[in-house]
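Risk register update: the risk of archive-format incompatibility is retired. Evidence:
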Amino acid sequence: MTILLLTVLCSTAFAQKWRQFGLKVETNFTLERNYATDGTTLDGLVNPDGYIFFRGGKFIYGEIGFGYSFFKGDFSRKNPDGSYVFHNETVKLHSLMIPVKLMGYIPLGRVVAIEPYAGIIYQPIISIGDNPIDFSKKTLEQNMLFANAGVDFKFGPIVIGANYKYGLNTFFTNKEGKKPQFINICVGFQF
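Archived output:
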């Protein structure tokens, strides 16, 4: 009981404003190279994101954001005999990004805090760059959905964080595939 009382008193002493806004810039590192069971692999991923967010709450916050994601990857596909159907063909995707999260706030001092979170990220594709391997709106999932969990470390207005993103749908719509997975590193500002 004493520990609970001290936690509430400490949280009250270092509580944040009930509404906040900010921005984050992120990059994703893929954990899954094999995107389809037909031997389609991903190499050379460049996947930066950026979004603004709004939060509301007291010790637990709800967050919604709006942003942009750029995806550039080199795809290859091998035949069973080891020869390439295509090799290192570049595909570029542009997506909107709408994260919705539930966040905690654990103060470690007046300006330092840990903010664990979990949520969903909706990423509808807005355009696909020209490519010679027929990756198009007919073959790629148009409305990617990711489960997301991570932690931010807040130092005054600066936020540094890491999270895990797991695709709830597959990358391709025209063949059996795997769900994308990413580790994400971010930096931003929160006011």
